[in-house]
Design goal:
The protein is built from 3 helices and 12 strands, in the order E-E-E-E-E-E-E-H-E-E-E-E-E-H-H. It is α+β, with helices and mostly antiparallel strands and 176 residues long. The protein has a 4-stranded mixed sheet. Strand 1 and strand 2 form a beta hairpin. It holds the Pfam family NUDIX. Its cofactor is Mg(2+). This is NUDIX domain-containing protein.
Length: 176
């Protein structure tokens, strides 16, 4: 049962997103007006060091009023390679430049409303380059034992679904 997007019109646009109204044809022949948000892709990255610790940011999200651990992440600029964007964001937000980035997963955090894809990467090494240029993005940056991730997710300390999914997969890949 596939829905078909017959037409879209932009009802609002700014440099970060577009809100569109789509004329959707349902399988039974009815039409549905459906609002959707068009976003640029997001790239995120972290590193797992030799002690099996993962580099995370502790930050506040004013929209939900929540605090939580996250990976460094940001929007992929027009024409930018996704892995390069992940590396740039990690260095800007943590002060650590990742080594070779490996794809971890790509997720669609809210695919019933938003078209954004979040591309998560990880590395086995990173080089400290200095205090993060975008230190306003988080209250602190810490190396957290990867073995603690499942309990942190269960306690709600990693509230963003994309971050929780990526960190749980990384935990499974590294620690079984």
């Amino acid at each position: 049962m596939q829905w078909t997007n017959l037409n879209e019109q932009t009802v609002y646009e700014n440099p970060w997103f577009r809100v569109n109204l789509a004329d959707v044809l349902l399988p039974d022949g009815r039409h549905l007006d459906h609002y959707l948000i068009r976003l640029r892709a997001v790239a995120a990255a972290t590193v797992v060091n030799e002690a099996n610790e993962v580099l995370l940011l502790w930050r506040h999200r004013f929209i939900t009023g929540s605090w939580g651990w996250e990976l460094a992440a940001g929007v992929v600029e027009d024409g930018e390679d996704v892995a390069a964007a992940a590396a740039r964001e990690m260095e800007e937000e943590t002060g650590w430049r990742p080594g070779e980035l490996r794809p971890l997963m790509t997720v669609e955090p809210a695919n019933g409303l938003v078209d954004a894809r979040h591309h998560l990467f990880w590395s086995r090494e990173a080089t400290y380059t200095g205090h993060p240029a975008d230190d306003f993005e988080s209250s602190r940056r810490e190396w957290v034992p990867l073995k603690l991730v499942p309990d942190m997710v269960a306690r709600g300390e990693i509230p963003a679904a994309n971050m929780a999914a990526g960190l749980l997969l990384l935990h499974h890949m590294q620690l079984g």
